[in-house]
Amino acid sequence: MLARHISKQAVRHASNLSLENAGPLMSGLARVVQPDKKEKVSPIQVKGLKRFWEELAVKDLENGNITVTLGGKSLRTMGQHDLILPATKKPLAHLLMHEWQVLPSLKLKNHSVPLTSLVSRAIDISKSPAVRDAAIKDIMPYIDTDALLIFEPSDSYQGRLRAAQENDFRPVIADAEKFWGVTLKSMDSDKGLLGNRQTAEDKEAVKQWAYTLSPWQLAALERATLTSKSFICGAFLISGKLTPTQVAELVGLETKFQVERWGEVEDTHDVDFCDIRRHLASCSLLARM
């Protein structure tokens, strides 16, 4: 069974954050939430209260771009670039500011600020061809193991799960084949767990499509693919062919049958239900805003 969710690496309290001990999402923000050693540490930080900044704003820059500041300082990306947005993305900047306004505490986790992390990733991709190459390389294997290309045995759940997969997955697969001009192979579990692999030519066609994406779209595709375990769903989400809810329902089909049979596990199924939709909605916003 394919894993259904991404592991979440916790990071330490903001007063202890550093580039060495912070999680990969928040390490780029350490400059903001960790005071410079040469600066006077405020009593608020020493007491470990929920927030140390008094000012949170969207700031217009002299070159026409915009940024989000905490305590007068710009957020920074994981790659240590200032988190600067073009003026055309001002609504996105206000959404980033809102994420920080509603943080319940500075005990940050990778999923605490999904839009901020996506924007950070997009900026890093735009600054480095190597980062762009690595992002595409990391998600390309999902075109082989795509959640929509793995079909359960015909007798699963008295045949109802396989029938639902055939009904829901096949039309999306057909659309994907037309979209990329490829023929996608799927794995039929009735024939054994033999793995699944696309041809080199078809993989190259999909890869070249990924290289046409803007940094914003690629960051959204990467997150959506990792969240859903489906390259097809990620691609169709950022292109507007599927909504976040539709993607969540497609990749959560097997879980739906499990819950119907065994019941819901509190603080697991219910949390995953909301978490995947939040991440997918963030990806959709970033790609299309």
Task: Summarize this structure as a short list of keywords or feature phrases.
globular, alpha+beta, 2 domains, 6 strands, single chain, 289 residues, two-stranded parallel sheet, disordered N terminus, 49% helix
Walk me through this protein's architecture.
InterPro entries: ATP12_ATP_synth-F1-assembly, ATP12_ATP_synth-F1-assembly_N, ATP12_ortho_dom_sf. Belongs to the ATP12 family. The chain is globular. Helix 4 packs across helix 5. It is 49% helix and 6% strand. The strands form 2 sheets. Strands 1, 2, 3 and 4 form a 4-stranded antiparallel sheet that branches. A two-stranded parallel sheet has the order 5-6. By secondary structure, it is of the alpha+beta class. The chain folds into 2 domains: 14-111, ATP12-like (2-Layer Sandwich); 133-288, ATP12-like fold. The two termini are 35 Å apart. It has 13 helices and 6 strands.
CATH homologous group name of the largest domain: ATP12 ATPase
Mean pLDDT: 80
Shape: globular
The total beta strand count reads 6
CATH architecture of the largest domain: Orthogonal Bundle
The CA-CA distance between the termini, in Å, is: 35 Å
The biggest beta sheet is recorded as: 4 strands, antiparallel
Measured by DSSP, the beta-strand proportion falls in: 5-15%
Count of all domains: 2
Number of helices: 13
The amount of helix comes to 40-55%
Order of secondary-structure elements: HHEEEEHHHHEHEHHHHHH
CATH class of the largest domain: Mainly Alpha
Structural class: alpha+beta
CATH topology of the largest domain: ATP12-like fold
Low-confidence stretches: 1-49
The Rg value, from CA coordinates, equals 21 Å
